[in-house]
Design goal:
Layout: E1 3-11, E2 16-18, H1 19-23, H2 30-37, E3 41-43, H3 50-64, E4 74-78, H4 89-97, E5 103-107, H5 113-126, E6 133-140, H6 150-153, E7 158-167, E8 174-182, E9 190-192, H7 203-207, E10 213-215, H8 217-238, E11 248-251, H9 256-266, H10 277-280, H11 287-297, E12 306-313, E13 317-324
Parallel strand pairs: 4-5, 4-6, 11-12
Antiparallel strand pairs: 1-7, 2-3, 6-7, 8-13, 9-10, 12-13
Helix pairs in contact: 3-4, 8-9
Bound molecules: oxa(dethia)-CoA.
Length: 333
Amino acid sequence: MPATITAISHFLPSDIIDNSYFEKYLDTSDEWIIARTGIKERRFLKEGATSDLIVPAAQKLFKDYNINPEEIDTIIVATVTPDHMFPNTAAVVQHKLGMKNVWGFDISAACSGFLFALRTACSLVESGTSKKVLLCGADKMTSIMDLNDRATAVLFGDGAGVCLIEMSDDPNMGLIDHILHIDGDGGRYLKQIAGGSFKPASHETVDNKEHYIFQDGQNVFKAAVKGMADVSVEIMERNNLTHEDIAYLVPHQANLRIISATADRMGLNPEKVMINIQKFGNTTAATIPICLSEWYSQGKIKKGDNIVLSGFGAGFTWGAILLRWNMNQRGLI
Ligand code: UT7
């Protein structure tokens, strides 16, 4: 029996930063940002850390679905902006939410973090190790962004998506299939150079701005277009699904042009593609659960829908997951 999502929620900070904010002090324009990325605005968390994005999303989840947090036995946080290198953000979230009888850990897979964590959470449930997993995809990207670098400052935002993972009540619904990859050869194109054991923090690393996101955009773009489309088509083909059988593609939201290329290769009409990059930018591990949560809360996802989640990010990490949605419109299976 597969595991499945049984509740979903998200949180975005209230501070909206539109493209005109950057036009005031960077050599950039609203036209360039929209044409090259599709982003119009993003949200910045002014105070607090990644756990402060997760906690309100989790509290909303508990309230909306009448979940007793005491019943949750595992917390998984996908993030590249943990509150600290250690302790893990899962422990910070546990403490802030006052949860008991729970263990947990963080997963670092950048923009594919939610996909990797979803597969892990479902495997824990399917093996009987966990019964209820609080799965969080969250990043405070502003904590590692150089706001004076036009090549990266305009791309990212802060946000969190959380969901509950439990055993499905139907063998044909839940997480049906996954294709997940890593290739460390891509590490040179997208990384946080310093701050780890390879290059610990020093005056020099701070002076050289090596704690901020470094990205060779063009090389990441080329790899992302191919990687995301390849796995999305592969997961359709090996599950004998045509474009008509797919209700939605939920792509990682890094660039509208990457999303369109993936949807085109899958033969999907635009209305079958979840896109909110124009409002929130790239929130890294949070983009996919935020999309799912938004569309579900608007009543646009039905029980039985085939949904392909697809992402590409630093590592390189990439992959696709086929979900058959197992919640009705009132939220609970
Ligand atoms: O989420 C994790 C994975 N990340 C991704 O998937 C991101 C993949 N990459 C991309 O989305 C795109 O490469 C970017 C949006 C980052 C950049 O778009 P691009 O079309 O690849 O632009 P480019 O890097 O080739 O730069 C073209 C020009 C350059 O100027 P010159 O050398 O042609 O004079 C840049 O300096 O655009 C310039 N540029 C900008 N101009 C105005 C770069 N950033 C900006 C900016 N405003 N914000």
